[in-house]
Amino acid sequence: MGRVAVLMAEGYEEGETLTIVDLLRRGGLECHTFSFNEEFVRGMHGMYVKADKYFNDEIKNYDMLVLPGGRPGGQNLLENQDVISLVQYFNEHHQYIAAMCSGTVVLEKANPAGRGRPADGGGQPGDPGGLLAPVRPADERKRFAARHRPGF
Question: Which own/partner pairs from 146-151 qualify as long-range (CB within 8 Å, at least 24 positions apart)?
């Protein structure tokens, strides 16, 4: 694995998104951020970050897709049918999918594992949740999700 695509929707969680990008790049992996409409994307805490690229079919050539959380970042990813289709594509082609916090809501709609156990979607009341783990053992190592619990 060498190429990672990180999606940045309006309201992405800056810490989750940028920490992942930083660690992957320090580790020698090729990692790009992708935005949808604007070159500079406003995060959940009002920080604007310039995305490396605009969302396009090139992402299908990456080895891993990352869906960060954030409010309303996770919801904005969920409401984008192109994102849902991309997650399904990654699943069908056995590519890695990683989601965290409210980014897991996308997995519920895209249903990459066919089934799964509910996630809390970030530990906040009213979050719709997502899927934490696939049930198909052969693909289990290709799906990652993290959730936040208050107090941790």
Answer: 146/99, 146/100, 146/101, 147/100, 147/101, 147/104, 147/119, 147/120, 147/121, 147/122, 147/123, 148/69, 148/101, 148/122, 148/123, 149/120, 149/123, 150/123
Chain-centroid distance of CA 46 in Å reads 19
- Terminal alpha carbon distance of the chain: 30
CA–CA gap between residue 98 and residue 100 (Å, rounded):
7
Tell me the pLDDT of the chain (152 aa) as tens digits: 589 999 999 999 999 999 999 999 999 999 999 999 999 999 999 999 999 999 999 999 999 999 999 999 999 999 999 999 999 999 988 899 999 988 988 988 887 665 444 444 444 444 444 444 443 434 555 555 544 444 33
Sheet holding 30-35, edge to edge: 53-54, 30-35, 3-7, 64-67, 96-100, 143-146
Q: Which two tokens stand for residue 56?
A: 């396009």
Beta strands of 52-91 (E only): which ranges? 53-54, 64-67
Task: Supply the pTM of this predicted model.
Answer: 0.78
